[in-house]
Amino acid sequence: MALPTQISSRLAALGSSFADVEERFIRGAGPGGQKINKTSSTVWLRHRPTGVEVRCQRERSQSANRELAWAELCAKLEERQRAELAMQKDEREQSRRRNRQKSRGQK
């Protein structure tokens, strides 16, 4: 099954690839009766380098769940990258404040 090019481009922007992700199709849990007990429509993804996991069981079809899970994984990885960049920016800003010259009033 091929994934949309949008997900491919999002992964490429993150510096990751499909090979970095472990994908499994497992049986779902919860309400749904016999249908959910017989089919493996739940999609489970794990990004090996970061350990981020996603499990999607929203739809009845495996292909729909697969697309949703990949989109959710990309969103989580993007959020993680944004948080990391913000932390680095904050550290640089704190260092800049510590090392700047004192004003005349502070002297």
- What percent of residues are in strands? 15-25%
Strand order of the largest sheet: 1-2-3
Shape: elongated
The whole-angstrom Rg is 21 Å
Order of helices and strands: HEHEEH
What is the number of E strands?
3
Number of helices: 3
The helix/strand class is: alpha+beta
**Helix content estimate:** 40-55%
User: pLDDT below 50 for ≥5 consecutive residues: which ranges?
Assistant: none
Give the termini distance in whole angstroms. 68 Å
Arithmetic mean pLDDT = 89
Main sheet makeup: 3 strands, antiparallel
Would you mind describing this structure in some detail?
- It is a single chain.
- The protein is of the alpha+beta class and 107 residues long.
- Helix content is 49%, strand content 16%.
- It has helices at residues 5-13, 34-38, 62-99, and strands at residues 21-26, 42-47, 52-56.
- A three-stranded antiparallel beta sheet has the order 1-2-3, with helices on one face.
- The radius of gyration is 21 Å and the shape is elongated.
- The mean pLDDT is 89.
